[in-house]
Write a structure and sequence with these properties.
Length: 210
């Protein structure tokens, strides 16, 4: 990662002009490797749960819409490599508040695994009547990802689709209330950290079912 403000400025500029931002080397190879070790730890501890779609508890319906497994992160008790990631996200939050006036108060983040055969159909990251999510961010953690491996993030822009490969170290951000998107069918395990910048404090509500 560049050690000046360029990355912050670039993300703020991209968000201001196109409502999404792609940063190729948000994390270094070493940072990705260290976070992947934390994933392995949580997998061994059986800490991942099937993600839902937030509206009901209907396993079959959920499965037709999304197939990922998640574990919410409690920032206070996170392992060091995850804390370092969160501190960069915090820096981004502060910068966006200063430059884009988004009124972000906090953020929530989970570990995410899409196993082979899974996807997440086209959607917006806001539930009806809930405008809390302002910016969505996803950091990808997949070494040696090949085009045939699938799992691209597809952004639906004005009259155009943009596919983003989930390559190790890349950060994708977008305006949660504006950009519809989907995760295309993944053919091998697809790892990421996924989160949202919110217009209210998270408080103790970080442990969720979805
Ligand atoms: C989500 C989502 C996109 C991705 O979790 O809401 O759309 O690329 N993720 O993982
Ligand atoms: Mn989404």
């Amino acid at each position: 990662m560049v050690n000046n403000n360029n990355w912050l400025e670039s993300i703020a500029d991209q968000l201001a002009t196109q409502d999404f931002a792609i940063t190729d080397h948000f994390l270094s190879e070493e940072e990705v490797k260290a976070i992947r070790e934390v994933f392995e730890h949580h997998k061994e501890q059986d800490n991942f749960k099937r993600a839902g779609i937030g509206k009901q508890d209907d396993f079959m319906l959920d499965k037709q819409i999304r197939g990922d497994y998640i574990k919410w992160i409690d920032p206070a008790n996170a392992f060091e490599p995850v804390k370092e990631f969160l501190s960069k996200i915090n820096e981004l939050k502060d910068y966006l508040n200063r430059t884009c006036f988004l009124g972000i108060r906090d953020y929530e983040t989970h570990f995410t695994i899409y196993p082979p055969g899974s996807f997440y159909k086209r959607h917006l990251d806001q539930f009806q009547g809930d405008g809390a999510r302002k910016i969505s961010f996803i950091c990808y953690l997949n070494d040696n990802w090949q085009p045939g491996d699938g799992g691209e993030l597809r952004l639906y822009l004005d009259g155009e689709e943009r596919d983003v490969q989930p390559l190790a170290g890349k950060l994708a951000c977008f305006r949660s209330e504006i950009i519809e998107h989907e995760v295309l069918l993944a053919h091998k395990n697809r790892y990421s950290l996924t989160g949202w910048m919110l217009n209210h404090p998270v408080g103790l509500g970080f442990i969720k079912n979805t």
